[in-house]
Design a protein that fits this description.
This protein starts with 15 loop residues before the first helix and ends with a helix. It has about 200 residues and is mainly alpha-helical. It is built from nine helices and no strands. Helix 1 packs antiparallel against helix 2 and helix 3 crosses helix 4.
Length: about 200
């Protein structure tokens, strides 16, 4: 456990779900700022107005909380973006727009890539969503709508790499220009359009 001072939990005993929710809502800010290794359970508990022991009760460990936060935020991003295998540049631009609206999640994703690079691959909902996207791209390739120069899985990897690379390079929402977004759309279109 961290050596931070614990805060008190002012939630009635019957409101355990609300405590868990407050912890889950408070944790992204701490992990975005400091990462998994630098994040402090005491600061998360203070932000959540909960006793830090409750973090261990609900999530097992700081690592378990980090995994729960990443799962929720990745699914939030996936639900906010509509995947269309025949419009991969539009998909990339939607991701760009989502992260422009939620810049703290960019830092969270960068910390995850640095400290827990295999985490997302081990999350069943993320794994299913990625498999569905690969199948969609393969079907679009078979229909002649997407280039077959690369396997569907590689196409998805490259589209996501271009997108996340653009988002991470910008650093903050103010630097994410419409020109950068347009360049991303052009790059993805050139990568994926059938010749």
């Amino acid at each position: 456990m961290d050596n931070d001072q614990p805060s008190t939990d002012d939630t009635p005993a019957g409101d355990a779900a609300a405590t868990g929710r407050r912890i889950l809502d408070a944790a992204p800010a701490e992990f975005s700022e400091a990462g998994l290794a630098g994040g402090r359970v005491g600061r998360i508990a203070a932000r959540a107005r909960a006793n830090q022991r409750m973090i261990y009760a609900y999530f097992g460990s700081k690592d378990g909380l980090f995994e729960a936060v990443l799962t929720e935020k990745v699914l939030q991003a996936q639900n906010a973006v509509v995947f269309d295998a025949e419009d991969l540049s539009g998909y990339a631009c939607q991701i760009f727009d989502f992260y422009r609206a939620h810049p703290h999640l960019v830092r969270l994703n960068l910390w995850q890539a640095l400290e827990r690079p295999d985490l997302l691959k081990s999350l069943a909902p993320v794994e299913r969503a990625m498999a569905d996207k690969v199948a969609g791209i393969a079907a679009a390739q078979a229909a002649g709508k997407v280039s077959t120069a690369l396997p569907a899985e590689r196409v998805l990897d490259l589209v996501l790499s271009l997108t996340y690379g653009n988002v991470a390079q910008a650093g903050n929402a103010a630097a994410w220009t419409d020109d950068q977004r347009a360049a991303l759309a052009t790059a993805v279109t050139r990568l994926t359009s059938p010749r």
